[in-house]
Amino acid sequence: METGPGPPRDPPRPNGPPVSLRRVPRPWQPANGAGGLGDNVGGLGPLPLTSLLPQGLPDVQPRLVAVSKTKPAEMVMDAYSHGQRSFGENYVQELLEKASDSRILSSCPEIKWHFIGHLQKNNVNKLIAVPNLFMLETVDSVKLADRVNSSWQKKGSPQRLKVMVQVNTSGEDSKHGLPPRDTAAAVEHVINKCPSLEFVGLMTIGSVGHDLSKGPNPDFQVLLSLRQEVCEKLNLPIEKVELSMGMSTDFQHAIEVGSTNVRIGSTIFGERDYSNKADGGKAPG
């Protein structure tokens, strides 16, 4: 049973009639007090997420990042009102506009924005200006790390900006990220040369539609191996290095193999409309 004030009126959709927020799966509502993803997402039911983690991996409750790209502020506010705090966006301009919305600023004071799209160097200053920016998950070069570090320093924030290093584990040309062989060096650079950044983990998109009957997703396995390599080379505790992997189509498998950060969009908010996107088209999430 829902408590507190009901959800706001249905927001209009660009194409078609309003969609009821009550029909949108809400993973921010734990099923039967389980503390995990809700009963409408991926068939998890009341199972707490930590019970999916394999033995030998850090016992960390995975973070749900609700990817709200192309969705209106009303949907973000509704999710926030039900306890969701972490939200992700793929486009810098959309994130800046949404995070600066006066309604979100006033009604969502504890919101944490994750940027999960490809970041071009000429957009770094715009990203750093985003209110309540919590994490950049897509550092894919040492040059980008340096640019972000410099911009965050100039902002004068007392807190370091949390960043993840993105790895192209599938080797696909359509995916951004460092080649696996360059991962440890990039992490070392962030830690030793970027004092305004806090390295918190590794991120990958991986190939979409992997057939699990053939075994675990090899791209996720690559990221697991890279974390082990990075921790051994740089003497980092494994529980301090997060893994951001898993989206709407594969988040449950990602959690089963050790993801600590899943990025779920369409499963929560419904299918997206890209008809008005002028800055990059579709991006996974």
Description:
Helices cover 28% and strands 14% of the residues. It is an alpha/beta fold and 285 residues long. Strand 6 (197-203), helix 7 and strand 7 (242-244) form a beta-alpha-beta unit. The radius of gyration is 18 Å and the shape is globular. The two termini are 29 Å apart. Residues 1-48 and 278-284 have low confidence and may be disordered.
Got a strand count?
A: 8
Morphology call: globular
Contiguous low-pLDDT stretches (5 residues minimum) are 1-48, 278-284
How confident overall, as mean pLDDT?
81
Number of helical runs? 9
Category from helices, strands and their pairing: alpha/beta
Q: SSE string, helix = H, strand = E?
A: EHEHHEHEHEHEHEHEH
Strand content range: 5-15%
DSSP helix fraction: 25-40%
Describe the largest sheet: 8 strands, parallel
Which strand order does the major sheet show? Answer: 7-6-5-4-3-2-1-8
* Radius of gyration computed on alpha carbons: 18 Å
Please report the distance between the alpha carbons of the first and last residues: 29 Å
Pfam families: Ala_racemase_N
Protein name: Pyridoxal phosphate homeostasis protein
Organism: Anas zonorhyncha (Eastern spot-billed duck)
Family: Belongs to the pyridoxal phosphate-binding protein YggS/PROSC family.
